[in-house]
Write the structure tokens for this entry.
Amino acid sequence: MGLRQVRRRLQQQRMAAQQRFRRQKNANLLAPSGPHDFIVILDGLKPAFNIGKIFRSADAFGAREIHLIGIDFFDPAPAMGSFKWVPARFHERFATCHRDLSERGYTLFTLDPVRGTPLPGSQLPRRSAFILGHEENGISADIAACSDIQSLSIPQFGKVQSLNVSIAASIVMWEYLRQHPPGMAPAM
């Protein structure tokens, strides 16, 4: 297969993914909020693979909603239908998402494999929002300028000190539910 054919095939796949996205985005407008008070923020992730998988996990764990920053479309196929069950909120910039969630009383966390507080020893507030950045470039905002954002780390013991973003998202959602079991009333 020549380079021209490969490019044409990739372009066709991208167009098909965009069509799936447009169709399913309309259904997403009716998605009910998940039963738990945590939110996932996806900042500039690549549109091909991880976003759909994170929607699938967010559906399984009952996320309130997912905020997408700088993402105009993604392939919903890996979500296995979950895009229609987890409300999506789209933002052009991190600042609008940050302001919205801060005004709603959320504590924002980023995942930092080196400098964060270990996730198992952390105390996650009921209203937690987890920021997951681009697979290579990280988060778009200058986190140091946002003093209210806290860092968490997932303990790792191998040579590579990073996890796939969809795996990291699933781990942090599971830990949130471990700390806030379903059916437990919030403390007053």
The chain has one domain: 3-179. The beta strands are 39-43, 65-69, 88-91, 107-111, 117-118, 128-133, 150-153. The longest helix spans residues 3-28.
